[in-house]
Design a protein that fits this description.
13% strand; alpha/beta; five-stranded parallel sheet; 45% helix; 204 residues; 10 helices
């Protein structure tokens, strides 16, 4: 009984680990790219952020997926992207409750943008997020070792995450299939039912 009690006490003292997607969860990458990068360069385009109901949105923009990725990758490396602020509600939540959990960043981004993304995360949220993990998004003419095909592969290998927060329905579904709870951040391209504030409140 004493050993059981000690084990239970240890479980209560251990901190749960939250894996956070970066783009469109910790920041507003798509919205910033569209409004401050794509639309100024394409004044004939009238699409609004709320109308981005597909991700990737190349079909809605009337361009190829390759052209979309070229534009997005250029934006990722720009000063405009570096100057993005964290989602205000997310930052407030970290200040109030971040100490109650362990945190890691888990992002699917091209390798060319990974250093910039990691720097952004550590500069704004390094007080809480201590590790950064990238699943390289495939790009043409890029040959790299492929350790994980997707976030699900990584989560299964790492086996330390208690909760995933993501804007991709596929990533959320694959995490849940592994038995890992996952929360879907509501964005125009998914069917998330909870706003950011409501979702973060559900973590407590």
């Amino acid at each position: 009984d004493v050993l059981v009690g000690l084990a239970a006490g240890q479980r209560r003292l251990s901190l749960k680990t939250i894996a956070w997607d970066v783009d469109d969860v910790l920041n507003e990458l798509m919205k910033t790219w569209l409004e401050h990068w794509w639309l100024p360069s394409n004044p004939s385009s009238r699409i609004r952020y709320e109308e981005i109901i597909e991700n990737p949105p190349h079909r809605l923009l009337g361009i190829s997926q390759t052209d979309y990725l070229v534009s997005l990758d250029a934006f990722r490396l720009s000063q405009t992207a570096r100057d993005m602020k964290p989602v205000e509600e997310v930052l407030e939540w970290f200040f109030q409750y971040g100490h109650r959990f362990r945190h890691l960043a888990l992002t699917a981004t091209p390798l060319c943008a990974a250093p910039t993304s990691a720097e952004w995360v550590m500069r704004h949220l390094g007080r809480w997020i201590r590790t950064f993990h990238v699943i390289p998004s495939p790009r043409d003419r890029q040959e790299i070792p492929r350790y994980d095909k997707n976030k699900s592969d990584y989560l299964q290998w790492f086996d330390r995450v208690d909760l995933l927060v993501d804007d991709s329905p596929d990533h959320v579904a694959s995490a849940r299939a592994l038995g890992i709870p996952a929360l879907l951040v509501s964005r125009p391209w998914n069917r998330g039912s909870m706003g950011t504030g409501q979702l973060l409140d559900s973590l407590i």
